[in-house]
């Protein structure tokens, strides 16, 4: 992974050891006059787990929303697995990609949101098989086989025939994780996935994610306020402030020896 910003101190990570799966190049995102991301550059190598930390409003979720094409950048380009996501630069101009192209590239990405967003009228099994059948074209049997394996991974085999309303929030979130993985994405985006949970349910969900991080080769980009979790799973941590990466590095470096005063302030408030 590497990061840099043309307006901030360049921060390069030496651990660039794989192909870049996610590439942000000079990405600027504005909402009206609010510059939320400011000329942002960073890469995530295949198989790495990268956590975004920083104060509320610093632009972390916007990065995940850009990757999901829920919002589009005003400037700059984003590549996933070597393909431009929404725009490419031609002769110095941003040229939009076709919707079809964006949709294809997006298939590499799965996301788990703060709210679980399960289909309330479908049982657990069908929540997981729906997209693989209708988007990937898997047979019902193949999709169900995949769903059963994933339900075992997230520890919910015995709940396969329940509706979401019959599950706890933590169990629903574990279904949402299984549902995202059922599409076999190369990248898993996690957006504060435990924030909506009662405190006693948080550990179960984080344990499942730790397990996935340690036993699969999926690339993860994670926004979290759970610093111990970030420390456990991350290869790299990016500290955001006002839409820029102000510091990046291994969890040991960021959590034990932060260089930037804003990082120290942020960590002393959350740790
Ligand atoms: N759809 C939108 N329309 C207008 N402003 C938006 C929109 N989405 C985000 N913003 C603004 O962009 C800024 C960054 O928001 P973002 O959610 O990316 O921050 P964040 O770092 O994830 O914060 P938090 O930790 O609180 O979730 C905020 O000022 C927010 O109000």
Mean pLDDT over the residues: 91
Ions and ligands: adenosine-5'-triphosphate
Instruction: Give the low-pLDDT segments.
Output: 4-17
CATH class category label: Alpha Beta
Overall spatial form: globular
User: Strand order, biggest sheet?
Assistant: 9-10-11-4-12-13
The fourth-level CATH homologous superfamily is P-loop containing nucleotide triphosphate hydrolases
Bin the helical content. 25-40%
In CATH, the architecture is 3-Layer(aba) Sandwich
The termini sit apart by: 25 Å
The succession of helices and strands, N to C, reads EEEEHEEEEHEHHHEHEHEEHH
What do these coordinates show?
By secondary structure, this protein is an alpha/beta fold. The protein has one domain: Rossmann fold, CATH 3.40.50. It is 35% helix and 28% strand. The strands form three sheets. The chain has a six-stranded mixed sheet with strand order 9-10-11-4-12-13, sandwiched between helices. Strands 1-3-2-5-6 form a five-stranded antiparallel sheet, covered by helices on one side. A two-stranded antiparallel sheet has the order 7-8. A hairpin with a 2-residue loop joins β12 and β13. α3 packs across α4, α4 crosses α5 and α5 runs parallel beside α6. The chain binds adenosine-5'-triphosphate. The site of adenosine-5'-triphosphate has 11 residues, from β3 and α1.
